[in-house]
Write a structure and sequence with these properties.
Layout lengths: L2 H13 L14 E2 L12 H9 L14 H5 L2 H14 L2 E5 L2 H12 L5 E5 L4 H10 L2 E5 L4 H11 L6 E6 L11 H8 L5 E5 L11 H4 L8 E5 L9 E5 L1 H10 L1 H4 L6 H12 L5 H20 L10 E7 L1 H13 L2 E2 L1 E3 L9 E6 L6 H19 L2
Helix pairs in contact: 4-12, 5-6, 13-15, 14-15
């Protein structure tokens, strides 16, 4: 693109209230924009425990190479072994959930493949679909009947079919019926890929683990940047798939590995997951309170989890709402197209286990008043 074309596009984005910018928050807010669902990031006791039991030699801040050269240090190998013990399948650590999702699809599927994906799957999944050059079909969000209709029509035409879903969706805060999709595998031949980005930590080792479905999922992806309070991702799959990824996944082969300190932290979180049950229980109470309060205030949401989505509609009004809430001491985030469909701009609220009911009660009252104000704009 020419520089002039780029400048014009940026101007148009700003006119449509869709221009993204980087900013630093100089003061403390009640933060509804963080994905630190368990509140681990702000828990001093957890960090004190982690650092007091860590040897100086483990504090290396870089691996200085890819996994295939000198980046498969003992800590990351131990981490993969521990994940394998818990989930009963091989594990490969990726640098991010985005890399893991896109890599799986573009490595294993090609022009001869059919990929059936939930319409609201993450951008990383769609990047993988596009890069694979496979035939892509989207089914209506969480609609198992729509998925089965596609399977009925195409299952005999393709021998290589992948179905992709998330467990909890970050834009609507709703939950997929993974068990029902697994049941479809008994009738139709396909591979199943599941992304647990927003359920790991919140539901312990994840929804698939809790429902004993790991054995039925071909590729289980667990990104660690949300409830895992870290960075990186686990790809959990059969050993033969792991070996193939090591040999063929470009994002794995050509990326510098995560620093040892990151994976030491990932191992700490994994090994202490059962200790975080109190945090999970408190988060569940906060969810119940929040959804009940929203109903009382006649604020609609389709969410049933710790991610609460409130559709405003217009980009400008959503921006105005976010600005007004910030002035009141609340950090919220406006989600707009292309992340969500046009005219479905929304307020995305992330609950954290360290929030207090009293503070939430105050916030929802302010939110209700500000929503009423922008209706007249």
């Amino acid at each position: 693109m020419l520089k002039e074309e780029i400048e014009k596009e940026l101007i148009n984005l700003e006119k449509d209230y869709r221009l993204r910018t980087l900013k630093v928050n100089e003061k403390e807010f009640l933060n509804f924009s963080s994905n630190d669902y368990l509140g681990i990031m702000r828990d001093k006791e957890i960090f004190d425990d982690f650092f007091s039991n860590t040897n100086f030699d483990d504090f290396k801040m870089t691996s200085a190479s890819s996994r295939l050269i000198d980046g498969s240090y003992p800590i990351v190998m131990n981490l993969e072994n521990e994940v394998e013990k818990i989930y009963g399948k091989a594990c490969l650590v990726y640098n991010s959930g985005f890399d893991a999702n896109s890599s799986l699809i573009e490595t294993f599927y090609n022009k001869e493949s059919l990929i059936i994906t939930d319409r609201l799957n993450h951008a990383s999944i769609y990047d993988g679909c596009i890069n694979s050059e496979a035939k892509i079909l989207r089914y209506n969000h969480l609609d198992i009947k729509a998925l089965e209709k596609i399977l009925k029509k195409y299952s005999t035409e393709y021998k290589d079919i992948l179905v992709v879903t998330e467990t909890i969706y970050s834009m609507d805060g709703d939950t997929a019926d993974i068990g029902a999709i697994v049941d479809l595998k008994k009738q139709y031949k396909f591979d199943l890929m599941v992304d647990e980005a927003h359920s790991y930590g919140v539901f312990g080792y994840g929804i698939a683990y809790n429902e004993n479905l790991v054995k039925d999922i071909d590729f289980l992806v667990i990104p660690l940047g949300k409830g895992g309070a870290s960075v990186g991702a686990y790809v959990i799959c059969d050993k033969v798939y792991k070996e193939y990824l090591i040999n063929k996944s470009r994002k794995f082969i050509y990326s510098t590995a995560l620093p040892p300190i990151n994976n030491l932290w990932n191992l700490y979180i994994l090994n202490n997951m059962k200790k975080f049950q109190e945090k999970s229980s408190n988060l569940k109470k906060l969810i119940e309170f929040s959804l009940k309060k929203l109903a009382e205030l006649n604020i609609e949401t389709v969410s049933n989890t710790h991610i609460i989505s409130i559709i405003i509609g217009e980009n400008e009004k959503t921006n105005l709402l976010v600005t007004a809430l910030k002035e009141e001491g609340y950090l919220t985030y406006a989600i707009k197209e292309p992340t969500v469909p046009k005219n479905t701009a929304r307020l995305r609220l992330s609950l954290s286990a360290d929030m207090q009911v009293e503070k939430l009660d105050e916030f929802f009252k302010v939110l209700s008043l500000e929503i009423e104000k922008i209706k007249g704009v």
